[in-house]
Amino acid sequence: MNGTEYVRQDRSGPARVVPLLGWLRHYDRRTLRHDLIAGVTVAVMLVPQSMAYAALAGMPPVTGLYASVVPLLVYALLGSSGSLAVGPVAITALMTGTALAPLAQGDPARYAALAGLLALLVGAIQVLMGVLRLGALVNFMSHSVLSGFTSAAAIVIAGSQVKDLLGLDAGRAETFPEIIASLWRSATTVHGLTVLVSLASVAGLLLLRRYLPKLPGALLVVAGVTVVSAGFALGTQGVRILTEVPGGLPAPAVPALGGSDMTALLPAAVAIALVAYMEGIAVAKSLAARSRQQISPNQELLAVGSANIAAGLFQAFPVAGGFSRSAVNFSAGARTPLASVVTALMVALTAVFLTPAFHHLPKAVLAAIVVVAVLGLVDRRSAVTAWRTRRSDGLTLAVTFVVTLLFGVEPGLAAGVAFGLAMFLWRSARPHLAELGRVPGTQMYRNVARYTGLVTDSRVAIVRVDGPLYFANAQFLEDRLLSLAEQRPELTALVLDASAISDTDADGAHALAELRQRLAALGVALHLATVRGPVRDLLGRAGVWQTMHGDGQVHADLTAALAATGAGHPNSSRR
Amino acid sequence: MNGTEYVRQDRSGPARVVPLLGWLRHYDRRTLRHDLIAGVTVAVMLVPQSMAYAALAGMPPVTGLYASVVPLLVYALLGSSGSLAVGPVAITALMTGTALAPLAQGDPARYAALAGLLALLVGAIQVLMGVLRLGALVNFMSHSVLSGFTSAAAIVIAGSQVKDLLGLDAGRAETFPEIIASLWRSATTVHGLTVLVSLASVAGLLLLRRYLPKLPGALLVVAGVTVVSAGFALGTQGVRILTEVPGGLPAPAVPALGGSDMTALLPAAVAIALVAYMEGIAVAKSLAARSRQQISPNQELLAVGSANIAAGLFQAFPVAGGFSRSAVNFSAGARTPLASVVTALMVALTAVFLTPAFHHLPKAVLAAIVVVAVLGLVDRRSAVTAWRTRRSDGLTLAVTFVVTLLFGVEPGLAAGVAFGLAMFLWRSARPHLAELGRVPGTQMYRNVARYTGLVTDSRVAIVRVDGPLYFANAQFLEDRLLSLAEQRPELTALVLDASAISDTDADGAHALAELRQRLAALGVALHLATVRGPVRDLLGRAGVWQTMHGDGQVHADLTAALAATGAGHPNSSRR
């Protein structure tokens, strides 16, 4: 039951396609015992959470149970992680509700069909990404974007639950200003007894988590409050309860909806597919590192995508690998997907036999579970770290946070990714330049702006360019180096230290050729030193390398380049 | 009259704001003679071209003259180039027509007002970019994008003139498929006499350009065909002629249009502002290099932006610095903006006194001028060079070309820029890695995949990462380096040559810290060598540098790093 204990995963033969077979090759009784304990532990946590997240997604609570049976079995068959716990999670539930509410026009049957279609789309996108090996796409969401997004989404989620906690007659609201306005308008409809139930639930959840963390807090609160609610008939006194919860498991069916719905859901499906995969892969990787297992990102996309397709076929809504449940699963000993099979069977038993027990469960309890679960997601420390490490990272986080809060989850995610990429591109369009001098008595060269006592020569400038030389910065570099040469009438040679030029393109090659000609017109020879292989290849294809090589202007390192310019000896000075 | 002769430009005092004052400080009679000759030469070229481009923009031909008076004077006052010839140019004329036609609903008065508003918007955007010093934004349009865009636009422009060349009754068409379809539908309305006029005009233009390049071909063809048209009364025989051309110059007026028109024109205005600036700055820079003058990109934005505002106020349409006219201006001796003042005065005299002479000018002649002018813009050589230099550059060019041809100029430009950036980002998300070995008998290290006979040590891997380490590739690098360590059980140290890591961010620092821990779990120590200053600073703010420095894991160069790992001596082998 600790991190050093691990189960070998065999990925040869048929296990390449169905990893579960690989796990079973080395399965033993001890592993089974761990998986049984972990599976039951997660199920006890998952039953109340999945119902709460279903409500957050705007779905009947029982569909949360549906989302926690077949999708888990499918993931167990195909997933490459031994500890990931798949099921409904808070953020994708919020995104699901946001996407569906405007399309469903208040019709619950249409809402459910749209949810299924959305899950199918999410699954199809994930499977497609896995087949095309596009898992790396999610890397364009930086930690800063994810952190700002998650914090804002957690606040929106918590805010959206306030109406249920207070028993208000308020409609669904998607953004923070809408939520505040909606709560303000309906503030007079606050229902005292519901507030009491909410306070008791929140207090129970927090106290149990704090003082008895080993106990299944959510389940105990659900059970306790349900007993009280049934005993005092709270449902007849204005407290909203679940009333009839249908029992049994759903039969598979393809949601019957048209192409226009599919088009309307597509942007949300892409966003959910990325976020759901991102949440799962992050936790799966960190757990796999601790148990020395291997995660295959593209296999994970196939597995979680198939789980979502199953969710779509079994009247559920999009699922993902959940962060907190996976951590519980891991620390309870889960090392193979058999744990998820145990969880799925437990949830199935609940759905078949125990739904009547939820009749008297107040909705406010589910809201309390959601609020307590997501408040831990607000991450102030990451914001401070990002801002301190790099202003642009902090700004990206802030932009994502504010846009998500004010305009919703998808605009927030899109704005964050776009802003982060724009900052990166803008920075790469104006790369750092360092003028170098020689460390006396050595062949090492350092930035004259950072070190003192370096040997320089007024006739030879040594400049290092830090970054790829490509279309967006080629003109900038040409202008900068040319104006440097123009400002120094004594200059006879400019040595470009290309060691940090990692890449180039046709525009970069063209700019180098032009720079060489324009410097020559000023009587300055351009030399290149330490050109990296890929850059050299491209300069060769553009014809620039041959010309410069023919003129003895390309060199293996700075020492050779300076020898060619004849610098560093007669006129050299220290600064 | 040659490139080495140059006029000093003084940019101190009030000349910082109005560069013309700086030119005049060093003005002499010789310069005046050159500017007079150049100004007249350009005017003779500009009068027929500006009328032809006005027709291309869907405006009355006389507005081409309007666009060539006040905007030129404004540019002469503010421009930093001594040779740029501003006025109507083919590509922005096409973009103007494309933007206005759907909004004007066939009402010529509304069309003219929209054209003025568009010029005002273009000017305002350019002035704003100049004030905010955003001239570098145009660098995101690579040569490949511009080349593909220009070639496709030239084909669309030439295609759009075919109906006038053949005298067809065809409507305006914006994309290549539309043009073909429109010509096909109206093919039966071809007018024989108009075809004859067109053939004569095209032949005249091409023959004069080929055999008498010093003569003003367009003007001669216009004069000759007009005389024939008047003598034989071609206008009464079905050849479309300009008929009444209003004389005089327009009074300034603000186009009276609402905010909704402004919103509708904004995307086109942004595209035209960028393209117009790009065309001008490119030619201005290349000419300035030859006359040893200095171009200030942000001053150019202010100048051409002000010229466009003047165009908007004087009933014209967007203008730009033209490529071919500027080259003519330069080779005729223009070295100061006084040449443009001369041109503007000549065009003004034409507008006031000579418009009755254009009564009998056939529209087909203007179409012939446009076609002959733009066919030289189709650039096959750039396409071949781009494809050969770098596949992604060739693809970018092809995407821009095809989208421009099939969907129009703005989608083409947007698709090209987006595709080019996506290729750059995708490449930077999977940076090149090189495993290094030591060149025997030296302290130089080279890529083992490119060189043979290098000294390596199976216990110490040296890996160079070529590219910035940032959010989009941090995970990729961590995974790649970790799997390298996992595949080599003998490994005790991994030395990361950071000399080509030009930049990093919070995610990069986090990935390094995580990689270090995960390698340590495998018994492999991570060492960094040759970390560039900006990267070191950031790792310091993230706290990674201090930890690694404390453990003796950061080194000035590879030699020091290898000494710290104890590698390269006992067990080393050649490969």
Automatic annotation (TrEMBL), chains A, B:
Transmembrane segments: 36-56, 62-78, 85-105, 111-132, 144-162, 182-208, 215-234, 264-288, 337-354, 361-378, 398-426
Gene3D superfamilies tied to this protein: STAS domain
Domain STAS, chain residue ranges per copy: 450-565
Membrane topology: Multi-pass membrane protein
Keywords for the protein's UniProt record, in alphabetical order: Membrane, Transmembrane, Transmembrane helix
Compartments it resides in: Membrane
Primary location group: membrane
NCBIfam families assigned: sulP (TIGR00815)
Protein name: Sodium-independent anion transporter
